[in-house]
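Below is a filled-in request sheet from our internal design queue. Each sheet records the structural input a requester submitted and the sequence that came back. We keep these sheets so that new team members can see what a complete request looks like end to end.

REQUESTER: design group, bay 2
PRIORITY: normal
MODE: inverse folding
CHAIN LENGTH: 464
BACKBONE (tokenized):
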């Protein structure tokens, strides 16, 4: 429905640079100010481009779902495309739809159940590794989580034959992520062909990743070996509409996307979750009691299906991702002129949406800054003042047709990791510790999360 046009308010900025400097300095604080000062849509200017910030969940739903074909990836995604290629995260249009159809079966529930055993095995090894550390000293949970999620994504994507090359691969991905963040925040971008130190580092890291992944693809095609991993599922995927499979380049792009997004976002979300639990010992105790009740004694390795009973643990993860959504901002460019309610969005301009903003807006949530896993209890769907909460007020994995294809993979992985961890350990913050978010490509802790990790001794009473 087209409404009579209303002049969209513009957030004050500086001549020439607009709001670029303020956004680069602290985008989360800027989003908070926008939500406090404006009702529905506000126009800002970043890097010389107009951005229409959608503040209401109903307008976000309109862009991501109801009129999604009018909105494509914004110019910001060109930076990610340099490395990710035409994967699901960066592609658009008919090509994206074909790739989504090809990749979707690999993430069906029955396929994920096959991968769950690998997650349990690697998470068990991770817990054992922590138990063998000197726990009189703080544990760097950020690095520990990066290591284990890298192992999990390697084994679920490529099988066991990648182990032994993780250090080089992890370093290469971290280098690419760091340089991509620099490119996103720096309006002056030198050509990638120029032999600058950063360009050389980027090219070497990209070549390492490409050589590894193309090698796995070539080996599978030549040997015809069958494995219960994601690469095997993608290799055998056939589009029902066209009968086509993926080329080596398409496989490479999807593998790199899954590889890059599949370990960092989970590791970051888990680091935030443990940090929050360290601040809330009462909630930590409930997670521990649930794990002890459903997963058995510490000496046993639970079956993957046992983790389905960890419903409170799942609520904790959901609430952690509300406070610290890894994808803190989303952007789409309008293909044709459109309107968000009475606000006109011209073709070629960008709509900026922030899960962080939606998750912290008191118009969507009661006491939004409070860590309260009970918000996600099965009988709760209320927002402020008892109103029904809008479905698009919570977007840790995006929304609409482009909802993250790996959302169930990530949730299952975190549930397994947190359940096994809580069965053995509790966590405490260090004196005077305060961890703040740093909005890069993902919403990372600004510093590595260091926690005091204590072994559980006396079993808690069972949860009833």
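RETURNED SEQUENCE:
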């Amino acid at each position: 429905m087209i409404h009579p046009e209303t002049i969209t308010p513009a957030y004050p900025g500086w001549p020439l640079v607009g709001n670029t400097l303020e956004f680069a300095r602290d985008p989360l604080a800027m989003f908070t100010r926008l939500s406090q000062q404006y009702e529905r849509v506000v126009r800002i200017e970043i890097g010389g481009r107009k951005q229409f910030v959608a503040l209401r969940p109903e307008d976000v739903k309109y862009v991501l779902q109801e009129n999604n074909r009018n909105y494509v990836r914004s110019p910001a995604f060109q930076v990610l495309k340099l490395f990710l290629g035409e994967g699901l995260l960066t592609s658009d249009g008919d090509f994206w739809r074909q790739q989504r159809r090809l990749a979707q079966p690999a993430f069906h529930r029955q396929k994920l159940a096959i991968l769950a055993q690998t997650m349990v095995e690697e998470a068990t090894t991770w817990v054992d590794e922590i138990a063998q550390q000197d726990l009189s000293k703080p544990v760097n949970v950020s690095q520990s989580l990066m290591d284990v999620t890298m192992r999990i994504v390697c084994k679920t994507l490529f099988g066991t034959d990648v182990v032994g090359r993780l250090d080089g691969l992890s370093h290469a991905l971290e280098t690419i992520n760091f340089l991509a963040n620099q490119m996103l925040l720096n309006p002056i971008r030198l050509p990638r062909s120029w032999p600058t130190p950063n360009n050389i580092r980027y090219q070497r890291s990209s070549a390492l990743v490409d050589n590894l992944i193309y090698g796995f693809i070539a080996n599978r095609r030549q040997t015809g070996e069958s494995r219960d991993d994601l690469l095997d599922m993608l290799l055998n995927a056939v589009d029902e509409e066209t009968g086509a499979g993926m080329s080596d380049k398409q496989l490479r792009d999807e593998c790199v996307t899954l590889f890059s997004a599949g370990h960092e976002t989970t590791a970051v979300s888990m680091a935030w979750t443990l940090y929050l639990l360290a601040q809330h010992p009462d909630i930590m105790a409930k997670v521990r009691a649930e794990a002890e009740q459903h997963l058995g004694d510490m000496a046993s390795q639970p079956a993957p299906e046992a983790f389905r009973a960890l419903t409170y643990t799942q609520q904790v993860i959901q609430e952690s991702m509300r406070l610290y959504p890894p994808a803190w901002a989303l952007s789409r460019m309008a293909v044709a002129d459109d309107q968000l309610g009475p606000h006109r969005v011209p073709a070629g301009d960008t709509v900026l949406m922030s899960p962080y903003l939606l998750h912290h807006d008191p118009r969507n949530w009661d006491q939004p800054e409070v860590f309260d896993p009970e918000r996600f209890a099965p009988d709760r769907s209320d927002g402020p003042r008892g109103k029904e909460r809008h479905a698009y007020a919570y977007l840790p994995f995006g929304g609409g047709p482009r909802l993250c294809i790996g959302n169930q993979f990530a949730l299952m992985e975190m549930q397994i990791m947190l359940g096994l961890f809580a069965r053995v350990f509790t966590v405490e913050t260090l004196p005077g510790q305060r961890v703040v978010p740093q909005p890069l490509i993902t919403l990372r802790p600004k510093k590595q999360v260091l926690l005091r990790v204590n072994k559980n001794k006396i079993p808690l009473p069972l949860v009833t």
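SHEET NOTES:
- The first strand starts at residue 41 and ends at 46.
- The chain has 15 helices and twelve strands.
FILED BY: M.R.
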